Amino acid sequence: MNPKFQPLFQPYTFNNGVTVPNRLVVAPMTHWASHEDGSLSADERLFLQERFRGFGLFVSAATLVSPEGKAFSGQPAAMGEQDLPSLRAIAALAHEQGAKALLQLHHGGLKAVPELLHGAAVVAPSGDTGGARALDGAEIQALVVAFARAADLALRAGFDGVEIHGANQYLLQQFYSAATNRRQDAWGGSREARMRFPLAVADAVLAVRAQHQRPDFIVGYRFSPEEPGEFGLTMQDSFALIDALAQRPLQYLHVSLWDFYKTARRGADPARTRIEQLHAHLNSRLSLIGVGNLRSAEDALAAYQTGWAEFIALGKAVMLNPDWAEWVQDGREQDIVTELDPQRADRYRIPPLLWSRCLEGMDWLPPLKGNRDWRPRDI
User: Fold this and answer.
1) Angle at 174 between CA 168 and CA 180, to 5 degrees
2) What are the DSSP calls for 357-378, one per residue?
3) Residue 109: phi, psi to the nearest 5?
4) What's the DSSP call for residue 165?
5) Burial of 211 (0-12, 13-18, 19+ CB in 10 A)
6) Number of structural domains, the chain?
7) Per residue of the chain (379 residues), what is the pLDDT tens digit?
8) What is the DSSP letter of 116?
9) In which domain, by residue range, is 214 found?
10) Distance between CA atoms of 177 and 125, rounded to whole angstroms?
């Protein structure tokens, strides 16, 4: 290994005593490859195997906790006993590669796809003109239970932990945002009330860990720091959420960024990056995972050396380079590619539906070779 990359391979010990061998995280990647019932498919297995050897943590694709929340075709599921065999297989794939496995728990809320719900209604904190129905109090409580049940399944399946998906304008973020939560009951209105559902989910997941007497089970929370629009989330909202989450025995927070170096819009210093200010506000109370269009070994090292995150997560880089971490360890970082070559489908082993999206040049996927107009999303 080139010695300058050694900092990326330092171990880290979480506040629950669990040690991770290095600072590299496989970011959660939606792969549109599970069977209709959410079980592991051959294409999904091919995509996951031998893709993240050398990484410390693997965070799974967004995994469905309740059927009306399905936001992707081919989305994996953690809803009942029937899902245990696939969950065990995914955890085993990570462990075979030496990574600790975290299951990301997800509900689409407003972003659920009606065609995938088999007649169920799209549900959300508040009704909207698109046809979503507002959840009632009993349904909200049932969803808290659904997240806890998914965490229980993950623990029993051999995962080393879970990541609660509170980012990217999915259900938990919809509850926290005044743009999507217009309730005036216990679950909406003030900032504290809008925060109640995400915190209830976190508490329920932590209770599962306590019930199993597994303090080594890692629990993290992913969040998006800002939203556009007059009523969208601001950095001040994120600071408040961080403060509430840091009072709980979580192990880490994971900030969802399209660009690691994106500066703040509202509620913080616009001349400084979001992640720098989030990390400073967190002040070592929990560890922070940073992400955002980092593809080369130099990209990852530079991001880590800012000191703004304890871990660096890679998504596009892992899609493009199944050997990313191994190549860095072997001194072959020059072999890492940063653009997708449409002629190398055999190299990437990307599932068919995801591959078709890649070839369309979508801005949230790796840039196509020669596409000089590609830019990460400005979010």
Assistant:
1) 120
2) HHHTT-TTSPPBTT-TT-----
3) 55, -125
4) E
5) exposed
6) 1
7) 999 999 999 999 999 999 999 999 999 999 999 999 999 999 999 999 999 999 999 999 999 999 999 999 999 999 999 999 999 999 999 999 999 999 999 999 999 999 999 999 999 999 986 789 999 999 999 999 999 999 999 999 999 999 999 999 999 999 999 999 999 999 999 999 999 999 999 999 999 999 999 999 999 999 999 999 999 999 999 999 999 999 999 999 999 999 999 999 999 999 999 999 999 999 999 999 999 999 999 999 999 999 999 999 999 999 999 999 999 999 999 999 999 999 999 999 999 999 999 999 888 899 998 765 555 555 5
8) G
9) 3-359
10) 10
Within 10 Å of residue 233's Cβ, how many Cβ atoms? 28
DSSP letters spanning 194-263:
HTHHHHHHHHHHHHHHHHTT-TTSEEEEEE----SSTTS--HHHHHHHHHHHHTS---EEEE--SSTTPB
From 305, 321, 220, select the one nearest 261 (Cα to Cα): 305
The CATH number given to whatever domain includes residue 153 is 3.20.20.70
133, part of any domain? yes
- Nearest to residue 291, comparing CAs of 220, 212, 341? 220
Return the CA Rg of the chain: 20
**Cα distances (angstroms) measured from residue 195 to each of 79, 169, 187, 191, 296:** 24, 14, 8, 6, 37
Q: Within a 10 A sphere around the Cβ of 360, how many other Cβ atoms?
A: 9
* H or E segment to which residue 63 belongs: strand 63-64
* Assigned domain for 365 exists: no
> Is 366 a member of any domain?
no
Q: For residue 81, tell me if it sits in a domain.
A: yes
